[in-house]
Amino acid sequence: MNTERVEIYWKTAKNSRWVVAASATALVLHILQVEVLARLNGNPPLYWVLFIIGLFLASIILSATAVVMALATSLRNEQKGVLLGTILTSYACLVLTFASTYYSMTAWGDHNDAVEAHIYYHYEGLKKNRGYLKEVRPRFTTERAFRGMESKLWRGVEDISVPYHNPASGPPAVEDILQRSLSDSPEDTVRFNPKDRPKVFLDCLHFSIVTIATVGYGDISPNSWSTKVAADLEILAGTTLLVVGLGLLFSNWWPPKLGETKPQDTQVTTPSTFAPEPRAALSPAGNEARRQHRRRPRRRHRHRP
Known about the structure:
single chain
């Protein structure tokens, strides 16, 4: 490995160190937020609620800072090798930052969906017992952050209504769900599902890669307004990073630094068969004679019969 490559790697790591640090810190804060939320199932004290809200705000602010730093770092006037490495590092940090953001949004959405399911079936069951309803229909709305994710971080009354129910056979019967929602409280039915954490994070990472690449498979789609805004921001950030960054990489847009010369664009001319030959340079006497010749009046020739 020569000295020039080592210098390029060193400058790339130096330019991207703050972006990588911000992205890694945002990832840790998002995962910590989900773990604290899982430990405080039920009615936590007020200070724990404030702590979770502070974690959520800090993780969102740090994620936005990582995105801005990734874009700003990639638009610097550097060597082409250093700039290419910085763009690739910033691109990977964007993917990881948005994936961690989607992970925490999924946790909040699954928790809200499980609570809303218990409330729906509880009140529908009360209406049926009092004779206001003859039949209770299954709940078709969802409060989850994304549609298409099979794994859940929180399980509710729709998932654990029957002790030995096989999820592969479909959802449980509505009567079993009603019985469980009437007999138990939301603290008993809404439970954290720790074994699906890797699956959910991989789904979030897959959605982040698909979104920033603007592929749009459609297998996972945002459901809430917050996830829609986050997906739109990721598309704009990824497109700006690629278009502007690669445009600066393969163009000569930046002005030269002090002591450097900017390479000029060379125009390749091909000889043409029909191009006129250049005139030979005339002496001062020849130029004067040429001007006198142009000043002479033209004679009009009469046509002879």
